[in-house]
Design brief:
The protein has helices at residues 32-43, 62-71, 102-117, 131-154, 159-176, 185-191, 195-201, 219-245, 254-263, 276-280, 282-307, 309-322, 338-351, 383-387, 414-417, 433-450; strands at 46-51, 54-59, 360-361, 366-368, 371-373, 378-381, 451-455, 479-483. The longest helix has 27 residues, at 219-245. The protein has 16 helices and 8 strands. Bound molecules: protoporphyrin IX containing FE.
Length: 491
């Protein structure tokens, strides 16, 4: 209720007053991460706004966020029951559903294990270190060939459209054991239109907080529902194929391993408490989370590289020095490429392309920094604020990879790297973080070893972020690449 009883000696978090019925919704209409960052300077790291009649707790500041998500992790690990979230994976999503009890815990563990087995665990069947390395190398090589072909044919191109299919193919290989053609319409209809998902699932969507809006026609919402339906249909078809060809002696991919979990649900097994359909549809969460964020990371990387050609050159010098041109980059090179690592950290920090985590909610009444927070309070975690906080960063608006390096430029400052907020913290932290970081590293280094990126003469890329679940940039059709040295066929 609006008039919560606050226990004696405690106070409610401060915040802007807002207008009746709508609360602060009008102020939050555009770029809410920036508006809430500005408001946090006035009201502090623990602040309350109202969206419609619903209070929302907004957390800023690295220490406050660590306190809530790590030290008081159990209190803050819930998800709010939001109208839009009920449409994701039939309301059964690991990521978006309000479940945060034992079933969620067991599902999360299962998804984590399946993901690991088919990505970074040492592979008995692959000549690479692990399956992830094999898939990323292969897809990055494919994109290089594609970019060069587009240069021959058109002299310029939009990289996003091709990156997204290659990145989707990496997670498809792990989840479904197959890759798709770059012109596969069914896959393109999903991966090339993920904004239709991100526009509605973004933190602060008014329809999630003002119920009357759910009854008004909305084009964005129709597109969102259609997108979720296409995802489910896509998954159902693949599941059917997998069941028909399933062989318990040959577990081919994540889907097979989840089928296996369903089939031998035994006593004492972690899966006993999970209903079957909630095992199998985990693949939907992995696939959905797996392509959009990594593509967005790579796409922002390319935008920074063409905007700062000297930074691109420095990465290429580092690659030439440590890897040379006789072999391709491998995951094991990561420790010896500090400048490249610093660039990736700075891309995550400066773009903050996931400005908020997925919304949290409190699982019980709690106290944070002396403020009383009741159970079931919706919580926004402002990652953008942390990444641009003047208390943590010198000249936060400047793109400067060197801020993460020691004076000699030989080592990444680990403590500073850990301040960058991109994957969340604590119990709800992204389960794909390690594989996402490996993917971005290997994909980028493979591209940059061979290609130099630029935009056509007289053109500039538009870096203005467009708000959504993830911040995108406007697509740019004016990218160009040049082969850095004659291509040799390598195996
Ligand atoms: C959740 C970031 C890639 C799977 C999240 C969250 C963030 C995030 C911010 C929400 C954390 C919270 O609510 O506090 C990213 C970024 C990625 C990335 C920046 C790439 C650069 C991936 C990949 C996968 C994945 C590759 C799996 C294949 C998940 C899942 C959740 C999640 C399943 C939900 C966890 C839960 O609710 O318990 N991610 N992610 N992510 N991510 Fe990622």
């Amino acid at each position: 209720s609006l008039w919560q009883h606050v226990p004696q000696g405690l106070k409610s978090p401060p915040g802007p007053r807002g207008i009746p019925i709508l609360g602060n919704v009008l102020e939050l209409r555009k770029d809410p991460h920036l508006v809430l960052t500005r408001l946090s300077k006035k009201y502090g790291d623990v602040m309350e706004v109202r969206i419609g009649t619903r209070p929302v707790l907004v957390l800023s500041g690295l220490d406050t966020i660590r306190q809530a998500l790590v030290k008081q992790g159990e209190d803050f690990m819930g998800r709010p029951d939001l109208y839009s979230f009920r449409h994701v994976t039939d309301g059964q999503s690991l990521t978006f559903s309000p479940d945060s009890g034992e079933v969620w815990k067991a599902r999360r563990k299962l998804a984590q294990n399946a993901l690991k087995t088919f990505s970074i665990a040492p592979s008995p069947t692959s000549s690479s270190t692990c399956l992830l390395e094999e898939h990323v190398s292969k897809e990055a090589e494919y994109v290089i060939t594609k970019f060069l072909q587009l240069m021959e044919e058109e002299k310029r191109f939009d990289p996003f459209r091709h990156l997204v299919v290659s990145v989707a193919n990496i997670i498809c290989a792990m989840c479904f054991g197959k890759r798709y053609d770059h012109n596969d319409q069914e896959l393109l209809k999903i991966v090339n239109e993920s904004e239709e998902f991100g526009n509605v699932a973004a933190a602060g969507n008014p329809a999630d907080f003002i119920p009357v809006l759910q009854y008004l026609p909305s084009r964005a919402f129709t597109l969102f529902k259609d997108f979720n339906k296409r995802m489910i249909d896509f998954m159902q078809k693949i599941l059917k194929e997998h069941y028909e060809t399933y062989d318990k002696n040959n577990i081919r991919d994540i889907t097979d391993s989840l089928i296996q979990q369903c089939l031998d649900k035994k006593e004492g097994n972690a899966t006993t408490q999970i209903p079957k359909e909630k095992i199998i549809n985990l693949v939907n969460d992995l696939f959905g989370a797996g392509f959009d964020s990594v593509t967005t990371a790579l796409s922002w990387s390319l935008m920074y590289l063409v905007t700062y050609p000297n930074i691109q050159k420095k990465i290429q010098d580092e690659l030439d020095q440590h890897i040379g041109r006789e072999r391709r980059p491998r995951l094991s090179d990561r420790g010896s490429l500090p400048y490249t690592e610093a660039f990736i950290l700075e891309m995550f920090r400066h773009s903050s392309f996931l400005p908020f985590t997925i919304p949290h909610s409190t699982t019980r009444d709690t106290v944070l920094n002396g403020y009383y927070i009741p159970k079931d309070r919706c919580v926004f975690i402002n990652q953008w604020q942390v990444n641009h906080d003047e208390r943590l960063w010198k000249d936060p608006q400047t793109f400067n990879p060197e801020r993460f390096l020691n004076a000699e430029g030989t080592e990444v400052k680990k403590v500073d790297g850990e301040k960058v907020q991109a994957f969340g913290l604590g119990k709800r932290k992204c389960i794909g973080e390690p594989i996402a970081r490996w993917q971005v590293f290997l994909f980028l280094t493979t591209l940059l070893q061979q290609l130099e990126f630029s935009v056509c003469n007289g053109k500039k890329v538009d870096m203005t972020p467009l708000y959504g679940l993830s911040l995108k940039h406007k697509r740019c059709e004016h990218f160009q690449v040049k082969l850095r040295y004659p291509m040799k066929s390598m195996s």
